[in-house]
Design a protein that fits this description.
145 residues, mainly alpha, 4 helices, disordered N terminus
Length: 145
């Protein structure tokens, strides 16, 4: 939970409805890619605040599982690098499972057609193929005059 400063610099109060970054990320994703499910949520602030806290707990739990205990001889910056990588790996896994859910049908009307591998069918939008050397016809080439 995100602490909120009140009255004095030495006093902190935790606001349970303050949404963390994970909650904001989940809300933005759901608003864009799952509009029907998003519209069905009655109390969005409470829902995404709770979801963000749950995601954060899962991330830190997985970081503890992924990160090796290290050794005393390991240089400080190497240890920082290992812990940062463990956090990135944990975020990737947890966000894929809890935040970045597959989009609803019709949520992305402008998305180009793809095949089963995810490759664009016919090339990316606005793309036209360049002629290959085998498409060259010397009779049509104006530079040979």
């Amino acid at each position: 939970m995100c602490p909120t400063r009140i009255s004095s610099p030495w006093t902190w109060e935790v606001n349970p409805l303050t949404m963390n970054d994970y909650g904001r990320l989940a809300e933005a994703h759901m608003r864009e890619f799952l509009p029907t499910a998003y519209a069905a949520i009655a109390d969005k602030d409470s829902y995404f605040s709770s979801l963000g806290d749950e995601i954060e707990q899962q991330v830190w739990s997985l970081v503890r599982d992924i990160a090796d205990p290290g050794t005393e001889s390991e240089p400080f910056m190497e240890r920082v690098g290992h812990l940062n990588m463990a956090k990135l790996m944990a975020e990737e896994k947890v966000l894929a499972e809890m935040c970045f859910l597959p989009p609803e049908k019709g949520a992305q009307p402008d998305e180009p057609e793809t095949d089963e591998t995810g490759a664009f069918v016919g090339g990316p939008p606005g793309w036209t193929p360049r002629p290959t050397p085998f498409d060259w016809d010397p009779e049509l080439d104006e530079s040979t005059d």
